[in-house]
């Protein structure tokens, strides 16, 4: 019990340190309208996607911040279900790079590896989709989703800090519960080290990198570098496979592609990364 409390406390401190600053930074960049000024950097990616240059703002918001900001910028563009599938597949793999790569750094996986892996895998995924003779039918959806507007910089900081703190508390509570449940199951039923590896993968698949990594941070001393590399690589490609795809499915994106292709790529790329590492 004492070990579980210590692990939960250390994980909570790490989550607070990672979540809150990045959340506030994203709101500051949006508040000062800086994001549109740097979105041109991502136009080559939209060209590879076969999407209009206007989508680059959504891609920039997704890569640098989160999927909610990306959808807010993409929703008014009137994308087709096929285009939403392309966008959802790429951003499902590459969203929130600064914060999620920093979390992976705690597991010993470098920022350079994480960034290159996720961007190249995201591009590979959309190239596969564009090559395949797919016919994704549905109606073009055009909505207006407003980002939060604030009367002053102070109001924005207060609101951002409140939302970031609420998100951090939510994550801390869930990760703490998972840590305690996992420890109880391991001590009473399984008593196997391998359980940590599989459990963290399933946690990441269904709940996301932050949750899955939260479990791994407690158990990483028991895993060798190859296991950490495999799990980290897998989770960076296939994570949050319920909530994230659902955001794009609302606009007509194909769920089988958004989920299935990411799992297939995660297995293949993770296995390849470990084989390369061992050689």
At a glance:
Keywords: Membrane, Transmembrane, Transmembrane helix. It is built from 14 helices and no strands.
**What value does the Rg take, in angstroms?**
19 Å
Distance between the termini: 40 Å
**Percent of residues in helices:** over 70%
Look at the structure and give the mean pLDDT: 82
Can you summarize the main beta sheet?
A: none
Broad structural category: mainly alpha
Binned strand content: under 5%
Question: Overview of this structure, please?
Answer:
- The chain has 279 residues and is mainly alpha-helical.
- The chain has one domain (2-278).
- It contains 14 helices and no strands.
- It is globular.
Write the layout of secondary structure elements.
Layout: H1 2-31, H2 35-38, H3 43-49, H4 56-64, H5 67-74, H6 81-94, H7 97-105, H8 111-131, H9 153-190, H10 194-207, H11 209-219, H12 225-237, H13 243-249, H14 255-278
Helix pairs in contact: 1-9, 1-11, 4-5, 6-8, 6-13, 6-14, 7-8, 9-11, 10-11, 10-12, 11-12, 12-14
Keywords:
single chain; 279 residues; mainly alpha; 0% strand; membrane; transmembrane helix
